[in-house]
Protein backbone atom coordinates (compact mmCIF):
# COMPACT_ATOMS: atom_id res chain seq x y z
CA UNK A 1 0.00 0.00 0.00
CA UNK A 2 1.41 3.38 -0.98
CA UNK A 3 1.85 6.33 1.30
CA UNK A 4 -0.86 8.21 -0.62
CA UNK A 5 -3.27 5.39 0.18
CA UNK A 6 -2.28 5.63 3.85
CA UNK A 7 -3.08 9.34 3.88
CA UNK A 8 -6.55 8.68 2.53
CA UNK A 9 -7.31 6.15 5.24
CA UNK A 10 -5.88 8.44 7.88
CA UNK A 11 -7.86 11.51 6.77
CA UNK A 12 -10.79 12.14 9.15
CA UNK A 13 -14.20 11.23 7.79
CA UNK A 14 -16.04 14.07 6.09
CA UNK A 15 -15.74 16.34 3.10
CA UNK A 16 -11.94 16.59 3.27
CA UNK A 17 -11.64 12.82 2.99
CA UNK A 18 -14.02 12.78 0.03
CA UNK A 19 -11.93 15.46 -1.66
CA UNK A 20 -8.80 13.38 -1.08
CA UNK A 21 -10.49 10.30 -2.57
CA UNK A 22 -11.49 12.31 -5.63
CA UNK A 23 -7.99 13.69 -6.07
CA UNK A 24 -6.60 10.16 -5.80
CA UNK A 25 -9.05 8.84 -8.41
CA UNK A 26 -8.03 11.62 -10.82
CA UNK A 27 -4.29 11.15 -10.34
CA UNK A 28 -2.89 10.65 -13.88
CA UNK A 29 -0.27 8.14 -12.71
CA UNK A 30 -1.88 6.18 -9.87
CA UNK A 31 -5.60 6.94 -10.19
CA UNK A 32 -8.46 5.11 -11.87
CA UNK A 33 -8.09 5.15 -15.68
CA UNK A 34 -11.83 5.66 -16.17
CA UNK A 35 -12.01 8.61 -13.76
CA UNK A 36 -8.89 10.18 -15.28
CA UNK A 37 -10.41 10.08 -18.77
CA UNK A 38 -13.64 11.85 -17.82
CA UNK A 39 -14.52 15.44 -18.75
CA UNK A 40 -17.29 17.83 -17.72
CA UNK A 41 -19.29 16.72 -20.76
CA UNK A 42 -18.95 12.99 -20.11
CA UNK A 43 -19.81 13.32 -16.42
CA UNK A 44 -22.84 15.59 -16.95
CA UNK A 45 -25.25 12.74 -17.85
CA UNK A 46 -24.31 10.93 -14.63
CA UNK A 47 -24.98 14.12 -12.66
CA UNK A 48 -28.47 14.36 -14.14
CA UNK A 49 -29.09 10.67 -13.51
CA UNK A 50 -28.08 10.97 -9.86
CA UNK A 51 -30.46 13.92 -9.37
CA UNK A 52 -33.34 11.80 -10.69
CA UNK A 53 -32.34 8.92 -8.43
CA UNK A 54 -32.58 11.31 -5.47
CA UNK A 55 -36.11 12.19 -6.58
CA UNK A 56 -36.94 8.49 -6.95
CA UNK A 57 -35.81 7.71 -3.40
CA UNK A 58 -37.93 10.59 -2.11
CA UNK A 59 -41.01 9.43 -4.03
CA UNK A 60 -40.58 5.95 -2.53
CA UNK A 61 -40.12 7.38 0.96
CA UNK A 62 -36.93 5.34 1.43
CA UNK A 63 -34.65 7.32 3.72
CA UNK A 64 -31.81 4.80 3.53
CA UNK A 65 -31.77 5.02 -0.26
CA UNK A 66 -32.11 8.81 -0.08
CA UNK A 67 -29.00 9.03 2.09
CA UNK A 68 -27.05 6.99 -0.43
CA UNK A 69 -28.37 8.88 -3.45
CA UNK A 70 -27.58 12.26 -1.89
CA UNK A 71 -24.04 10.99 -1.39
CA UNK A 72 -23.86 10.00 -5.05
CA UNK A 73 -25.14 13.43 -6.07
CA UNK A 74 -22.64 15.14 -3.77
CA UNK A 75 -19.86 13.10 -5.35
CA UNK A 76 -20.86 14.52 -8.73
CA UNK A 77 -20.30 18.06 -7.41
CA UNK A 78 -16.93 17.02 -6.01
CA UNK A 79 -16.01 15.40 -9.33
CA UNK A 80 -16.83 18.55 -11.34
CA UNK A 81 -15.06 20.78 -8.83
CA UNK A 82 -11.95 18.60 -8.95
CA UNK A 83 -11.78 18.81 -12.74
CA UNK A 84 -12.25 22.58 -12.53
CA UNK A 85 -9.46 22.86 -9.98
CA UNK A 86 -7.13 20.91 -12.26
CA UNK A 87 -7.51 23.56 -14.99
CA UNK A 88 -7.37 26.46 -12.56
CA UNK A 89 -11.02 27.48 -12.97
CA UNK A 90 -12.36 27.12 -9.40
CA UNK A 91 -12.21 24.85 -6.36
CA UNK A 92 -14.77 23.02 -4.24
CA UNK A 93 -14.29 25.75 -1.64
CA UNK A 94 -15.32 28.32 -4.27
CA UNK A 95 -18.46 26.28 -4.95
CA UNK A 96 -19.35 26.08 -1.27
CA UNK A 97 -18.59 29.74 -0.62
CA UNK A 98 -20.54 30.80 -3.71
CA UNK A 99 -23.73 28.97 -2.78
CA UNK A 100 -23.41 30.16 0.83
CA UNK A 101 -23.19 33.81 -0.20
CA UNK A 102 -26.00 33.36 -2.73
CA UNK A 103 -28.36 31.90 -0.10
CA UNK A 104 -27.56 34.74 2.29
CA UNK A 105 -28.22 37.34 -0.42
CA UNK A 106 -31.48 35.70 -1.47
CA UNK A 107 -32.83 35.55 2.10
CA UNK A 108 -32.63 39.12 3.43
CA UNK A 109 -35.66 38.35 5.63
CA UNK A 110 -33.50 35.79 7.47
CA UNK A 111 -29.96 37.19 7.27
CA UNK A 112 -30.69 40.86 6.64
CA UNK A 113 -33.00 43.64 7.73
CA UNK A 114 -36.11 42.68 5.73
CA UNK A 115 -39.16 41.67 7.71
CA UNK A 116 -39.83 37.95 7.97
CA UNK A 117 -43.53 38.73 8.32
CA UNK A 118 -44.56 38.15 4.71
CA UNK A 119 -46.30 35.39 2.79
CA UNK A 120 -44.58 32.52 1.02
CA UNK A 121 -45.88 34.00 -2.24
CA UNK A 122 -44.16 37.31 -1.53
CA UNK A 123 -40.96 35.48 -0.68
CA UNK A 124 -41.09 33.78 -4.09
CA UNK A 125 -41.52 37.20 -5.73
CA UNK A 126 -38.56 38.57 -3.79
CA UNK A 127 -36.51 35.49 -4.72
CA UNK A 128 -37.25 36.05 -8.40
CA UNK A 129 -36.31 39.72 -8.11
CA UNK A 130 -32.97 38.83 -6.58
CA UNK A 131 -32.34 36.26 -9.31
CA UNK A 132 -33.18 38.93 -11.90
CA UNK A 133 -30.60 41.25 -10.32
CA UNK A 134 -28.03 38.43 -10.47
CA UNK A 135 -28.78 37.88 -14.16
CA UNK A 136 -28.39 41.61 -14.79
CA UNK A 137 -24.96 41.54 -13.13
CA UNK A 138 -24.05 38.76 -15.58
CA UNK A 139 -25.32 40.93 -18.47
CA UNK A 140 -28.22 38.54 -19.06
CA UNK A 141 -30.71 41.20 -20.07
CA UNK A 142 -33.20 39.11 -22.05
CA UNK A 143 -36.25 37.77 -20.24
CA UNK A 144 -35.34 34.22 -21.24
CA UNK A 145 -31.59 34.47 -20.62
CA UNK A 146 -30.18 31.95 -18.19
CA UNK A 147 -32.80 29.21 -18.64
CA UNK A 148 -30.55 26.17 -18.85
CA UNK A 149 -30.48 24.32 -22.16
CA UNK A 150 -29.84 21.01 -20.42
CA UNK A 151 -33.11 20.93 -18.48
CA UNK A 152 -35.66 18.22 -19.31
CA UNK A 153 -37.74 19.56 -22.20
CA UNK A 154 -41.00 19.84 -20.26
CA UNK A 155 -39.30 21.62 -17.37
CA UNK A 156 -37.50 24.03 -19.71
CA UNK A 157 -40.74 24.79 -21.55
CA UNK A 158 -42.41 25.69 -18.26
CA UNK A 159 -39.52 27.92 -17.18
CA UNK A 160 -39.47 29.71 -20.53
CA UNK A 161 -43.21 30.32 -20.32
CA UNK A 162 -42.98 31.61 -16.74
CA UNK A 163 -40.19 34.01 -17.71
CA UNK A 164 -42.21 35.31 -20.67
CA UNK A 165 -45.29 35.68 -18.46
CA UNK A 166 -43.36 37.96 -16.09
CA UNK A 167 -43.06 40.55 -18.85
CA UNK A 168 -46.70 40.22 -19.87
CA UNK A 169 -46.38 37.67 -22.68
CA UNK A 170 -49.05 35.21 -21.53
CA UNK A 171 -52.65 34.22 -22.05
CA UNK A 172 -54.96 36.28 -19.80
CA UNK A 173 -56.95 33.17 -18.89
CA UNK A 174 -57.03 29.45 -19.53
CA UNK A 175 -59.58 29.69 -22.36
CA UNK A 176 -56.91 31.06 -24.70
CA UNK A 177 -54.64 28.11 -23.90
CA UNK A 178 -57.35 25.51 -24.55
CA UNK A 179 -58.17 27.17 -27.89
CA UNK A 180 -54.47 27.11 -28.76
CA UNK A 181 -54.33 23.41 -27.85
CA UNK A 182 -57.17 22.65 -30.27
CA UNK A 183 -55.44 24.74 -32.93
CA UNK A 184 -52.14 22.91 -32.52
CA UNK A 185 -53.86 19.51 -32.66
CA UNK A 186 -55.55 20.56 -35.89
CA UNK A 187 -52.25 21.71 -37.36
CA UNK A 188 -50.71 18.36 -36.49
CA UNK A 189 -53.56 16.60 -38.28
CA UNK A 190 -52.93 18.76 -41.35
CA UNK A 191 -49.23 17.94 -41.22
CA UNK A 192 -49.98 14.22 -41.08
CA UNK A 193 -52.18 14.52 -44.14
CA UNK A 194 -49.31 16.18 -46.00
CA UNK A 195 -47.00 13.39 -44.81
CA UNK A 196 -44.24 15.96 -44.27
CA UNK A 197 -41.86 14.54 -41.59
CA UNK A 198 -40.28 17.93 -40.79
CA UNK A 199 -43.67 19.61 -40.38
CA UNK A 200 -45.01 16.72 -38.29
CA UNK A 201 -41.93 16.99 -36.05
CA UNK A 202 -42.48 20.72 -35.60
CA UNK A 203 -46.21 20.41 -34.90
CA UNK A 204 -45.69 17.66 -32.32
CA UNK A 205 -43.28 19.99 -30.52
CA UNK A 206 -45.76 22.87 -30.67
CA UNK A 207 -48.51 20.63 -29.29
CA UNK A 208 -46.34 19.49 -26.39
CA UNK A 209 -45.30 23.08 -25.66
CA UNK A 210 -48.97 24.10 -25.51
CA UNK A 211 -49.80 21.19 -23.21
CA UNK A 212 -47.11 22.47 -20.82
CA UNK A 213 -48.70 25.92 -21.03
CA UNK A 214 -52.08 24.43 -20.15
CA UNK A 215 -50.57 22.57 -17.20
CA UNK A 216 -48.93 25.79 -15.99
CA UNK A 217 -52.23 27.68 -16.10
CA UNK A 218 -53.86 24.83 -14.16
CA UNK A 219 -51.13 24.96 -11.52
CA UNK A 220 -49.83 21.50 -12.48
CA UNK A 221 -46.12 20.69 -12.79
CA UNK A 222 -45.95 19.09 -16.24
CA UNK A 223 -42.78 17.11 -15.52
CA UNK A 224 -44.25 15.57 -12.37
CA UNK A 225 -47.59 14.91 -14.04
CA UNK A 226 -45.99 13.05 -16.93
CA UNK A 227 -43.77 11.10 -14.55
CA UNK A 228 -46.89 10.02 -12.63
CA UNK A 229 -48.57 8.97 -15.87
CA UNK A 230 -45.46 7.00 -16.84
CA UNK A 231 -45.60 5.16 -13.51
CA UNK A 232 -49.32 4.51 -13.92
CA UNK A 233 -48.82 3.08 -17.40
CA UNK A 234 -45.92 0.93 -16.17
CA UNK A 235 -47.96 -0.50 -13.30
CA UNK A 236 -51.00 -1.24 -15.44
CA UNK A 237 -48.96 -2.89 -18.17
CA UNK A 238 -47.11 -4.98 -15.59
CA UNK A 239 -50.52 -6.13 -14.24
CA UNK A 240 -51.57 -7.01 -17.80
CA UNK A 241 -48.41 -9.04 -18.40
CA UNK A 242 -48.77 -10.87 -15.08
CA UNK A 243 -52.40 -11.74 -15.78
CA UNK A 244 -51.55 -13.02 -19.25
CA UNK A 245 -48.57 -15.01 -17.98
CA UNK A 246 -50.84 -16.74 -15.46
CA UNK A 247 -52.97 -17.83 -18.41
CA UNK A 248 -49.92 -18.99 -20.35
CA UNK A 249 -50.11 -16.13 -22.84
CA UNK A 250 -48.25 -12.94 -23.72
CA UNK A 251 -49.40 -9.57 -25.14
CA UNK A 252 -48.22 -10.61 -28.61
CA UNK A 253 -50.70 -13.52 -28.58
CA UNK A 254 -53.83 -11.37 -28.25
CA UNK A 255 -55.73 -8.95 -30.44
CA UNK A 256 -55.96 -5.28 -29.52
CA UNK A 257 -59.56 -5.78 -28.38
CA UNK A 258 -58.54 -8.64 -26.08
CA UNK A 259 -55.64 -6.63 -24.71
CA UNK A 260 -58.00 -3.74 -24.03
CA UNK A 261 -60.13 -5.99 -21.83
CA UNK A 262 -57.09 -6.86 -19.73
CA UNK A 263 -56.17 -3.16 -19.63
CA UNK A 264 -59.58 -2.30 -18.22
CA UNK A 265 -59.09 -5.01 -15.60
CA UNK A 266 -55.74 -3.45 -14.68
CA UNK A 267 -57.43 -0.06 -14.27
CA UNK A 268 -60.10 -1.62 -12.05
CA UNK A 269 -57.50 -3.38 -9.94
CA UNK A 270 -55.69 -0.08 -9.50
CA UNK A 271 -58.92 1.66 -8.45
CA UNK A 272 -59.64 -1.11 -5.95
CA UNK A 273 -56.15 -0.82 -4.49
CA UNK A 274 -56.46 2.94 -4.06
CA UNK A 275 -59.91 2.54 -2.50
CA UNK A 276 -58.58 -0.05 -0.03
CA UNK A 277 -55.67 2.22 0.87
CA UNK A 278 -58.04 5.13 1.51
CA UNK A 279 -60.21 2.95 3.72
CA UNK A 280 -57.17 1.78 5.65
CA UNK A 281 -56.02 5.36 6.23
CA UNK A 282 -59.50 6.38 7.36
CA UNK A 283 -59.60 3.46 9.79
CA UNK A 284 -56.26 4.49 11.28
CA UNK A 285 -57.42 8.09 11.59
Number of helices: 13
Rg over CA atoms, rounded to whole Å, is 25 Å
Q: Helix and strand succession?
A: HHHHHHHHHHHHH
- Can you give the helix content as a percent range? over 70%
**Might you state the CATH topology name of the largest domain?**
Helix Hairpins
Strand content: under 5%
Describe the global form.
Answer: globular
Major sheet details: none
Work out the number of β strands. 0
| Count of the separate structural domains | 4
Cα end-to-end separation: 59 Å
Structural features, described:
This protein has 285 residues and is mostly helical. The chain folds into 4 domains: 3-105, Helix Hairpins (Orthogonal Bundle); 107-141, no CATH class; 142-220, MazG-like (Helix Hairpins); 223-284. Helices cover 75% and strands 0% of the residues. It has helices at residues 3-10, 15-25, 33-37, 40-60, 63-86, 92-105, 108-111, 120-137, 153-166, 174-194, 197-217, 222-246, 256-284. The radius of gyration is 25 Å and the shape is globular. It starts with a helix and ends with a helix.
Summarize the entry for a quick read.
The chain has 285 residues and is mostly helical.
Characteristic terms for this protein:
hydrolase; Helix Hairpins; mainly alpha; 4 domains; 75% helix
Task: Please outline the helices and strands.
Elements: H1 3-10, H2 15-25, H3 33-37, H4 40-60, H5 63-86, H6 92-105, H7 108-111, H8 120-137, H9 153-166, H10 174-194, H11 197-217, H12 222-246, H13 256-284
Helix pairs in contact: 1-2, 2-5, 4-5, 9-11, 10-11, 12-13
Protein name: Nucleoside triphosphate pyrophosphohydrolase
Catalytic activity: ATP + H2O = AMP + diphosphate + H(+)
Keywords: Hydrolase
